[in-house]
Every structure is written in C-alpha cells, then in structure tokens.
Amino acid sequence: MAGKRKTNEAGSSTGLRADVLRALGVLKAATADQIQRLSSPHLTYRHTTKKTAAVRKEARTASHRGALNDLRRHGLSVDGGRTRGGEEVRLLTKDGLAAAAIELDRGPEEMGGMPKSAGRSGASHAMTVNETVLAMIRPKPDLDLVAGEPAEAVAAARACVDAPDGIGSITSYATEVALPATGTWKNPGVGCAWADIVLIAPEAGLPLLFIEADNCTEEAPVIAAKFDKYMRHFRRKVKDTDGQDKPMWRTRWSAPDPRWGDASHPPVVLVFHQVGKRTALTQMERVADLTREHWQGRWAEGGFRIYDGKMPIVATTLELLCEHGLAGPAFWRFGREGYQNLWDAIGNPRRDAALARRAEDARRRQEQEAAERETQRPVCGDCGQKFTDDRWKASTTVGWGRADSHPHLCDDCKTRAIEAERKAEQAEHERQEQERQEPEVAQASKAGGWLGRWRS
Q1: How far is residue 398 CA from its own chain's centroid?
Q2: Burial of 313 (0-12, 13-18, 19+ CB in 10 A)
Q3: Closest Cα to residue 113, out of 31, 217, 185, 211?
Q4: Which residues in the chain come in under a pLDDT of 50?
Q5: Is-contact 141 38, C-beta < 8 A?
Q6: What are phi and psi of 388, to 5 degrees?
C-alpha cells in the first residue's frame, strides 16, 4: 500500500486515471468538474446534504482532482490557467497525449491539436466545446450508485436517466481536427479548417458530423469564412488505396457512401453560446446569409429541395441543446422555417415524404391494375379454377401457326383432356383396325373350312 501511495500520492485508482486520460485526450483542456460530470455522473447527485454549492462541488470532484494531481506528478498533465469562474483548467503534456492515445486506441495523427487559447483568457472557447460535448452525450448516472442519497437527489438522478438519450460516449468524439485543403492529414497546409468537434456515431444514424462552437464573440464574416474552408476540404480529392480518386474526408472516415438528405457533403452543426455581446439568433441569420452558396438547394417537382453538391449547415444554441437534447426541436437548418430534431435538420424530410407518397401512389396503382387484371383472368371451363399467370399467357400465345389446343382449360384439366383424347384416338384406331381385319378373318375361316373338307 505504501508503495502504491508513493506512486500515486493523491491516492487515485488506475481506472480513475484512465477515465481522466480519455476525457482530456478528447477535450484537451478541461476542469475537474467537467471531467467528473462526463466520466462519473453519479457523483453529481452525491454530497447533496453539504451546505453550499462550492462545498458540494469540492466533494464530488475530489477523486478526479486527485487523479489529475497524480497525472501531473508523472508529467502527463499540466496546469492550464483558470476559467473566468476561477476553476482550474488542466491540459495534457506530449507524454500525456501519447498515454491518452493508448487509452482511446487512436494513432497520434488522430488525437487532434490543442484547443484555441488553451490556458489563456479563461479558455472560454475550450469550455464551450466541452459543454457542447457534454450536452451531446448527456451522461446518465448509475442509479445503484446513488442509492442511499436523499430522496430529492435520487429523484433528480432518475429524471436524468429518464430524459432523452444523447449520442455516443467520449470515445465517439474528437476535437481540434484538421481538415486540410492542402497538405496532408499529418501536416495540413496553412489556412485549413480545424473542426472544433467531430462525432462518429453510425449506430445513431450519424456516420460523420462536424460541430463548431462559438461564444458570440466573433464577427459573422469570420464564422462564415470557416465554411469556405470546410467546402474546400470537402471538394478536395486524393487517390485512395485502390488507386481511385475519392473525397479526402472519405479516406479517413469510413462511411459507406453516406448521404444526408441527398446532400453530397457531411453536415456541420454550429452551436452558439450566449457569452459575448452579439445575439445568437442574429449571428445565425447573418452566417446563413453569408454561406448561402454552400447550403442552398434547388426546388424539385414535389415540393422539396435537392441538395446535391451542398453542405447541410444547422445552427442551435447551447441552451436549446441542453434543454431539448438531440431528439427535440433545437436545430435550425439554414434555409428552413422553424426548429427540428437533429436527424430531420440534417436530412431532407420533405423529400423523404414526397418519395414515400410517390411509392405509395405507385403501390396503389399496381394494386388497382392487379385487381382489374384479376377480373379478366380466365377460369377453367372444366374445374372452375382460375388460370395461373403462366397458363394464361400460354393460352393466348400463338406461335409457328399453332394456337393453344385447349385455351379454355387449366394445366391439369388440359393434361387430363389430352390424355383422354389420346386414349380415345387409340381406341378408335384399334376399333378401325379390328373392323378392317374382320373380313380377312372371315374369309380365311371359310377358306380353311373348304380345304379341310377336300383333304378329308
């Protein structure tokens, strides 16, 4: 025990340190509170009897702060300054990123870059990115680990469990991912796009989703310029391992010919956090107007738009995302009216509905035509059974100057009729043969009688 404490002086367990490494490996910069809510959400509902919120937070984050201190002593993490609220921010070192890559089962090139302004100016952008990831995952507590807490704490935990699910786990996400328009994945060219968050969750119908976070501090043209960079990357093609030219993004993310409401490029979600002086709704509208060339589709017959060659851009606020979740009306697709759930927003429900109506109309027409055809189906003149399709076709087919011998009979009755006719013809042939032979027999009989008398 003494040796273990010397190695991990803060007393953290191996599993807890692994949780912290995974969280920081994805988020890059985070507070102990964010790491706790992400990896051990049940602790949020403990220590509720303590007097103040500050004391409760200190108690529920104690284990993760201990793990962070152990990682710091081993040279895997460093202090990254403080948030505007005074919370300490932790970052991973180069060795820490390598250790996190092992925990996440990712290569070094998949770990992404460090967040913008990490450890400076309160790391406000990094904190918004983290809160966006938390709002997307919506971690749920294990109710067994909350047993014994006050009734109101258990009820709050149960309400969280019963709320709509989020998407994926921390391993489904990556942050600060380069999207090079020039250069390589490992060495992207100057001026490439850097995605704040990348989500891969094919099990939820989201094989690839890019997320941008903004604190309402940047000018709308600056935000719009990011989508120019996104489009440059999406349009870039490189040779894949099979020697064929493919979009570069598809050589990294294996999505089987993904389509998003018939759009050719992956969707991007823009999450605004009302921190700066600019209004989130105004920012959405201005960015939508400045990026119209990238997302606007063309009208098609049937009352829907076609988005071939376009990029679905969807906007929301962190408040709406936390309130409604992904399945609620929290997302505005540029160019549409009202808010939708995430899947409808990045998809094309009008097109889906129109195609479904067409398919239903076609099905009804086929059923009507089949019913009308059924009224014309011949019936066997002998047994009364309806003709099969093959028998019906054969009965009306004329080829080589010959028509069907029994067009009014089904296959079975026709077979029996042909057999009966064959037997009748054979009997008639035998009768005729017998009638032909009878005079000869009679003559031979007479001749035999005269010769007999002569010989006697």
Answers
A1: 54
A2: buried
A3: 185
A4: 1-6, 451, 454, 456
A5: no
A6: -75, 165
DSSP assignment string, 368-423? HHHHHHHHT--B-TTT-PBPPHHHHHHHH--BTTB--S-TTS-HHHHHHHHHHHHH
Those residues with Cβ within 8 angstroms of residue 93's Cβ, 6 or more apart along the chain or in another chain: 75, 76, 77, 78
- Cα separations in angstroms, 82 against 52, 381, 411: 21, 94, 89
The ranges assigned to domains in the chain are: 1-163, 172-376, 378-446
- End-to-end distance of the chain based on CA atoms, in angstroms? 142
Question: CA–CA separation, 171 vs 154, rounded Å?
Answer: 28
Q: What are 146-170's pLDDT values in tens digits?
A: 998 999 999 999 999 999 999 999 9
Q: How many CB atoms lie within 10 A of CB 319?
A: 14
Sign of CA dihedral 179, 102, 29, 16: positive
Confidence at residue 438, expressed as pLDDT on a 0 to 100 scale:
76
- Say what the pTM is: 0.80
Number of residues assigned to the chain: 456
What DSSP designation does 8 have?
S
1-163 maps to CATH 1.10.10? yes
